[in-house]
TrEMBL record:
Residues 63-189 form the DUF4097 domain. This is DUF4097 domain-containing protein. Pfam families: DUF4097. It comes from the Bacteria. Residues 1-23 form the signal peptide. InterPro entries: Toastrack_DUF4097. Keywords: Signal. It comes from Gluconobacter kanchanaburiensis NBRC 103587.
Amino acid sequence: MYWFKISLPVLAFGTALAFPVWAAPQNQSTTLDDISQSNLPEGGTLSSVTGNIRVGASGGPLSIRTVSGDIHIEQSAGSLDVRTVSGTLTVDHASGATEIRSASGDVRVNHAGGAASVRTMSGKSTLPHLEKDVTIRSISGDTMLTLDPASRMRTIDIGTVSGNMTLHLPHDFGGTFDILLKQRRSEKTLPLEQSLGLTVQTGVWEKNSDSSEEIRTITATGKVGDGRDHVIVRSVVGTLTLVQD
């Protein structure tokens, strides 16, 4: 009987080693304090008002909410969902689907391995390494995208009111283009810069219903290479620069 009693802790310890307890998703909320998590194996939900949020690595779905706190995520393996008002967001590497909503904070995703969706008001969006589909919507923030070579068809959909857009394409890029921009009479140069051989057509000058200034529509269409990817761009008064690296 005595032997049985002292063996129970040993048995429990051995069972814990054989069957480890999996970490649950982390839920943490604060108003003023910063949040720093070096490793979230199962992801989690983090929220802050003015405190900054930093995540080293997340292995599961990660949801982050801030008002003015800055956000820095080093590695996100699961889906990533971020909402911020004025905080700056930096993501070093996101391999899952990424969805970002920001009012005035700048957004930078250094590497997006999954589909990405970014919507901003006035913040600047920078995505220098894109592998899959991307959707960008902006009011006045500038947008800079760079497409990495990919093995599958993808859709690049960019829309802005007055932000300037720059799209870098790989040297062997193949895609079809559907571009519609607007030009004001006071603007002396076309809002499109490209050397891809796209067919550019200019519409007639018409009075803008919101002002006395005349505007015209600029369209650019065409196929480059095998035409696999689909590039859609819409802008009211912004400019578009297409660069084939």
